[in-house]
Description:
By secondary structure, the chain is α/β, with parallel strands linked by helices. It has a domain at 3-38 and 101-215: Rossmann fold. Helix content is 43%, strand content 19%. It has helices at residues 21-31, 61-69, 89-97, 108-117, 131-141, 146-160, 175-190, 201-215, and strands at 2-4, 10-14, 36-37, 41-42, 57-58, 73-78, 84-88, 102-105, 122-127, 168-171, 196-199. Strands 3-8-2-9-10 form a five-stranded parallel beta sheet, sandwiched between helices. It starts with a strand and ends in a 6-residue tail after the last helix. The model has no long low-confidence stretch (mean pLDDT 91). Bound molecules: guanosine-5'-monophosphate (5GP). Residues 17, 40, 44, 75, 77, 79-80, 85-87, 105-107, 109-110 line the site of guanosine-5'-monophosphate.
Amino acid sequence: MVKENIRGNLIVISGPSGCGKGTICSKLLKNNPDLFLNVSMTTREPRSGEVDGVNYYFVTKDEFLNKIDDGGMLEYAVVYNGNYYGTPKAEVEKKLNEGIDVILEIEIEGAAQVNEAMPEGVFIFIIPPSMRELKRRLIKRNTETKEQIIERFKRAYKEINEVNKYNYIVINDDIDTAVSKVEAIIKAEKCRVNRIEDFDLNTKEEMLHELLTEDLKDYDK
Ligand code: 5GP
């Protein structure tokens, strides 16, 4: 018998702001309701339409710093405008232990910390087809000021150079193709040999014996 490791996989998805990773994650979840997209904590202000506990846990800087001090964060980073973003640890551990695959949609500094703590994670980097297209998408999104777009675009350059720290790269040219590539990665990771906890060779030998003696005894070709 082959016994599989029943712990879920931790899947980290990063990519520059505007590369479409948010859309990829929501489509991924819609197609695969058994996946769990973790809710991050942030000190930034909610955008219009964003809901506390759904898009993020929106907290004050003090609350965030207390959580770090309590050892409650798997990773965190100061990303834009001095705002903190981080992954509370407890929920991630709980889901992984229940055998559920957990998605973290986080930037590269946080991903590097996750890699230290959980090197068995699966690290996927999403890139736009070109920097020009990235700039176009950031402007079209219409959620940031001009200064914020410039800050995000500069950071995108820095982030794209870190791609070699990831296991997989997915170009988001066509959204459905990108989603199906991420799905393929998640499925393939489930089949990794190192997920096999126990491969009972005795049982295999017994089966071989049974096959050669019992099952073949009436076979006369
Ligand atoms: P936004 O302000 O557009 O929601 O997110 C800004 C950036 O923060 C994105 O690149 C996003 O991936 C990243 N981010 C969101 N949640 C987390 C988190 O929990 N940890 C880290 N390190 N980055 C995060």
